[in-house]
TrEMBL record:
Organism phylogeny: unclassified sequences, metagenomes, ecological metagenomes
Keyword Endoplasmic reticulum on entry: no
Gene3D superfamilies: PPM-type phosphatase domain (3.60.40.10)
GO MF term (any one): protein serine/threonine phosphatase activity
Domain spans labelled PPM-type phosphatase: 4-236
InterPro entries linked to this entry: PP2C, PPM-type-like_dom_sf, PPM-type_phosphatase-like_dom
CDD domains: PP2Cc
Residue spans crossing the bilayer: 280-301
Record's signal peptide: none
Name of the protein in its database record: Unannotated protein
Amino acid sequence: MKLKWGATTDVGMVRQQNEDDFCAEENLFVVADGMGGHNAGEVASALAISTVRSGARGGIFTADQFRELVQQANTAIYTASLDDSTQSGMGTTLTAMAVVPGEEPAVLVANVGDSRTYLFRHGVLSRVSVDHSYVQELVNEGIITPEEARVHPRRNIVTRAMGIDRNVQVDVFHQLVRTGDRVLLCSDGLVDEVADFDIAQVLIDHSNPQEAAEALVMVANANGGRDNTTVIVVDIVDDISEPVPVPVADITTTVTPVTADATAPMPAPVVRKFLRPSVIAFWSALVFIVLSASTVLGVYARSGYFVGFDSNDNVTIYQGRVGGVLWFQPTVNTQTRLNGDDLPEDVRREVLLNRTFASSSQAAKFLSLVETAILDASTTTVPITTTTVK
Ligand code: MG
C-alpha cells in the first residue's frame, strides 16, 4: 500500500499554548490532545506520541499489539503524573492509525477520548472511531443528535482519557481501505468548529493532502479557533486489489460508519451476536449503572459556583467544584477585569478563599461586594466586608 500524507497543528485563535501533538510517518499516524494545568497537557500528549512511535518501530501487526502499545503509553503518562506533582492529573486523548500487513489493504485505528479518525470515500465522510465523551453517550441514548452534540455546552467532557488511571480501555477498529480513500485524523479543535459536511467539502476541494490539512485548520480558525487544532490527511494512493469495505467484527469492536449527513442520527453500534440473554442483561445493567453514575457525577461536578483568580490573576466566577472532580473541570462563568495586583490585600485574601455559591447570581452578588470593597478602599481603609452570601 502506498500512502501520501499531510499534517499540521495550530494553536488556534484563543489559546496561548498548543497542547496537541501528532506523529505522521510511514505506516503510523497519531493525534493526541493533552489536558492538564502547568503545561502538563503538552507533556501528556508528547509522551503518548513518543511512546507509541517508539513501540511501533518494528511494525504493527495485530489489534491486540496496537492496543497493548497504547496501554503502554497510558502507563507512561500515569507514572509520570505520579512522579511530578505539577503534572498530577494530566491526561490526553489519542487517535492513531497503523497500516497492517495482510492479504487485503487494511488499517487499524486505535482510540481513547474524543479525537477522531474518519474515512473519506467517494465524497462521503464516515467516522471510524467513536468518541468517549459525555455528548456521545447522549447521542447513543438518542437524547440528542450528532449535530446537537457538536454545539452542546458540555461537548468537551471526555469520559475516557489516557494517563488518568493505571489502566485504560482502548478501542481498536479494523478498516479495509482501497485506492482513492482518504483517512483523516484530527483533534476536537477541528470538529468543534467545522461540521462534518464542511470538512468533506474541504477534502473535495483540496486533492493535495498537505493543502487539505492546512485548509481544514484555516476553516477551524476562521470559525473561531477556540481550541488547538491538529489535522492529518492520509491518502491511499495505490494498492493491488479493490476490496469491498466490509467491517471485520471478529478482530475487535466494529462500528457502522456515520454518513456525512450531520443531522442524521448515528446508527446504533453493531451488537455482538450469539450472546446469551443473561449476558446481555448483565452488560445492559452494568452499562446503565456506569452511565447513571457518570451522569450523577457530572451533575454534581457542574453544580455550584465559586470565585477565584484565573491564570492571568483576574477575578473570575467559575461553575463547578474547586479543583474539579475527576475529569470534570470547572468552567469560566464570568470573567472580570479586576486583577489581583489591583486589589487591596484583604480583598485579595477574600478572593483566594474560593468561596462557593449555589447559584451564579449569588456569586455575582459576592463579586459586587468585592467591587464595592475596592471602591471603599480607594477612599478609606475600611476592610472588605466578610458577609457570606447565601
Ligand atoms: Mg482539544
